[in-house]
């Protein structure tokens, strides 16, 4: 079994990127999208232009916009990153095999705990880390239908994969939870 190196990212940097996942909603969808699931992918090792790391890509839940039920925020971000990393005219210009390897250096921030489909995709991608805000338990309490298999269960059952992914929970949940309240509670404001 592999082990994780100590987490050296300061909490204030985690907060910055979680807030960035939240603001992706307004930038890419609307300030009050029904499925307010936003994600950003960050390279914490590239501090050339910002000591907090470099934003590689971002996305939001797009299943309603595209008619594809698998386009949760995390899956959409992974797809977006793949396109950005391999764009022959872009900043990275990686081959497909280089792009696949690049995920091991990246951190995925998402404002809600990945569902089992997304957690599996994160593990298959080989991300260095996955950081989330609102838990699946909180989503269910707020009325969201969920498959009650938690990210840590998916991560624990994926030990045969060639990489490991750090899972960091409940970062800024006090700010991410409200994004999932108003859809099923008329007393909650968007």
From TrEMBL:
GO terms of biological process kind: tRNA wobble adenosine to inosine editing
Alphabetized InterPro entries for the sequence: CMP_dCMP_dom, Cytidine_deaminase-like
Species this chain originates from: Hyaloscypha bicolor E
Domain spans labelled CMP/dCMP-type deaminase: 12-147
Listed name of the protein: Cytidine deaminase-like protein
CDD domains: nucleoside_deaminase
Taxonomic lineage from the root: Eukaryota, Fungi, Dikarya, Ascomycota, Pezizomycotina
Signal peptide range in chain numbering: none
Pfam families assigned to the protein according to its UniProt record, in alphabetical order: dCMP_cyt_deam_1
GO molecular function terms noted in the UniProt entry: tRNA-specific adenosine-34 deaminase activity
Gene3D superfamilies in the cross-refs: Cytidine Deaminase, domain 2 (3.40.140.10)
Domain of life of the native organism: Eukaryota
């Amino acid at each position: 079994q592999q082990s994780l190196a100590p987490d050296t990212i300061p909490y204030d940097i985690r907060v910055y990127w979680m807030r960035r996942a939240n603001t992706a909603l307004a930038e890419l969808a609307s300030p009050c999208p029904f499925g307010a699931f936003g994600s950003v992918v960050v390279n914490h090792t590239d501090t050339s232009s910002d000591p907090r790391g470099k934003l590689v890509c971002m996305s939001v839940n797009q299943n309603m916009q595209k008619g594809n039920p698998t386009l949760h925020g995390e899956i959409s971000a992974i797809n977006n990153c793949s396109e950005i990393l391999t764009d022959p005219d872009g900043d990275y210009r990686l081959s497909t095999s280089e792009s696949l390897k690049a995920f091991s250096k990246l951190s995925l921030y998402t404002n809600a705990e990945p569902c089992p489909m997304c957690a599996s995709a994160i593990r298959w991608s080989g991300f260095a880390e996955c950081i989330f805000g609102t838990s699946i338990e909180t989503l269910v309490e707020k009325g969201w239908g969920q498959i009650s298999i938690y990210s840590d269960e998916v991560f624990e059952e994926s030990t045969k994969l060639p990489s490991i992914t750090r899972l960091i929970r409940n970062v800024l949940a006090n700010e991410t939870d409200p994004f999932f309240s108003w859809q099923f509670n008329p007393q909650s404001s968007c």
